[in-house]
Design a protein that fits this description.
42% strand, alpha+beta, disordered N terminus, 19% helix, six-stranded antiparallel beta sheet, 3 helices, Immunoglobulin-like
């Protein structure tokens, strides 16, 4: 008898609570989540990212003129020290809404050196770099160097200390793509 009365009181409490809960913001959407979630997902901005790598091939023609072309890398690609790779990061806005203030971080792969001044981006994006494992970013990283006379100077950071590239993109219009490229060299 006690079990029935406790279960019955729980059902009455639930039935009595539903009308009040449906008037509370946030909680009401939980009770009606079937259509609210579907509508919410449909209106969310969607950025599809794709990263591709290519290997630089340099050849000389019969007039000793260099020609540079790029070969797509497969999963079984072999690279050698001093090979230059170009990475292309594409972000496609698949939604019907403009995306704003995107920040994309790309680590420099281990065993690679960033090729200085090789980064480019579309859509008026800004490129910054990290030399401290991604903790801070700046447009022109510098390091402090102690000279033989003991004086400390600030100099541009060498390629060997770059750890990340950050792409700051103010906006990506609906149904458009933003692209960034940068190069690395195998150590």
């Amino acid at each position: 008898m006690n079990r029935i009365s406790i279960a019955g009181m729980g059902a009455i409490a639930l039935i009595a609570t539903v009308p009040f809960v449906s008037q509370m913001p946030g909680v009401a959407s939980f009770w009606q989540s079937g259509s609210a979630i579907a509508q919410n997902l449909k209106s969310q901005p969607q950025l599809q990212l794709r990263l591709e790598a290519q290997k630089q091939l340099v050849t000389k023609d019969q007039h000793n003129q260099q020609t540079v072309r790029w070969q797509s890398l497969s999963d079984t690609a072999v690279v050698q020290p001093k090979d230059v790779l170009r990475y292309t990061l594409s972000g496609e806005n698949k939604s019907d809404r403009q995306l704003q203030n995107l920040t994309l971080n790309q680590p420099i792969p281990q065993g690679m050196l960033y090729v200085l001044k090789s980064a480019n981006i579309t859509n008026n994006g800004k490129i910054t770099y990290s030399i401290d494992g991604g903790r801070s970013f700046m447009e022109n990283p510098t390091i402090k160097v102690t000279l033989s006379n003991g004086k400390v100077e600030t100099k541009p950071a060498p390629a060997s200390v770059y750890t990340h590239i950050r792409l700051l993109i103010p906006s990506v219009a609906a149904k458009t793509t933003v692209k960034a490229t940068y190069q690395t060299q195998v150590r």
